[in-house]
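Re-running Orotidine 5'-phosphate decarboxylase to confirm reproducibility after the cluster update. Everything else is unchanged from the original entry.
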Amino acid sequence: MTFTEQLAAAWQKNNSLLCVGLDPDPAKFPAHLKGRDDAIFEFCTAIVDATADLACSFKPQIAYFAARRAEDQLEALIAHIHEKHPGIPVILDAKRGDIGSTAEQYAVEAFERFRADAVTVNPYMGRDSVEPYLAFPDKGVILLCRTSNAGGSDLQFLDVGGEKLYERVARLAAEKWNTTGQIGLVVGATFPAEIARVREITGDMPLLVPGIGAQGGDIEATVNAGKTAKTTGLMINSSRAILYAGKDENYGEAARCAALETRDAINRYR
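Result of re-run:
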């Protein structure tokens, strides 16, 4: 199946709009994992196995692996998800953005090396920097649009011909770039009015929404602003609040409880 087909199936099968972010920080791991060469893989697979039936997607952040020379554990983690939990798409959160020839290599990295089902991409350099990812027709390409950080307004709120820059990105994605139906957008939960505006511009395009949990985004406002007529359309990401819900060897169970609570909180407003 394509990324969008997998995502639609996961929304229904798991009755979930929850995306579990995988941002492994060894300093926060339970004591029994510290010092192990495979600690990142072991930590993340336990989280995945505990939450897979509650999630519509997983989102590993590549920097948390690359900074510790753990790209091999990232490869193994994604392979584990595909083998043990088939049908749950994996979004590689890499935020790549470069000229076409370099973007081709980043696309190979994401889709052939790591075998991700989708990747996050910075569209600042325009259409030709996005097209190499679209050359993989079964994969998802999720463009930064209205990000959850406070500094995002420095550029994303600039006026460009009578609309804000984030609105222009949404419009280009929906009307000109998404010819193969692969594109989604990142819109932060910290800005529900902008989620609603992006939904208005893009129709049923999938939206990856970071910013709930530790970042303080409001679940009710996020769901009401971003859900489609079918009450889907969203991948609402929570990372730290799930990953570090537990501090001891039962961290997987604690993560499951946090994920269940978050999924059900999201579903109350669908």
